[in-house]
Amino acid sequence: MSEGNGTLRAGVASQRIADQLRERILSGRLAPGTRIIQDELAEELQTSRLPVREALRILQSRGLVTLRANQGAWVTQMDMRECELSYKMRERLEPLLLAESAPHLTDTDIAELAELQGHIEQTRDVEEFLVLDRQLHWATYRHHRADELANIVARLWDTTQHYRRAFTRLTGDQRSWIINAEHRLLIEALRDGDHRSAERILELHIRRTRVELSHHPDVFQTGAASG
Prior knowledge:
By secondary structure, this protein is mainly alpha-helical.
């Protein structure tokens, strides 16, 4: 095997491990503050430490893992202020990403959004809601041509996932009708081609979640609603 092929295979292995760890973090199987022991992970995945180390560096670049020199790796943990700042960034950046995509949404896209929202309104399962909610919002962004912006927004979604889950479990049915109403307003504005209104609705949708999160400091306690 040539050196080039070896490097390529190592890169593929690292990305595969990074994808597996990302799924565990986003699903809540690895909660914020959890230590990731490289030797144990390498043994579990039947691989060497090198691709594990590289996978952790990939996840560090995405904000999901914190590496400390000579200490190890942990799933990144946020305090309320850090999470609030992430949501403030989303408030400003996601309407811009929507603006890049909205003019190119088709009737088929709008019909898919309505179908997704129908599924959201029917579920009472937090994990299913998180998946569907993410699908709906990213379906509105699918026609963007702003990869750098989309990568920043995706990182913000990933790094706040745990707190969104914990918050949803705490508030549940109390706020589902508000979420559904805002989603419906967003879809209607996109259907009408009223993109400025769609951007404002999205901004308010994210801002309201940020404000409500600020009233629930228990979400940021170590191990809160993990699972």
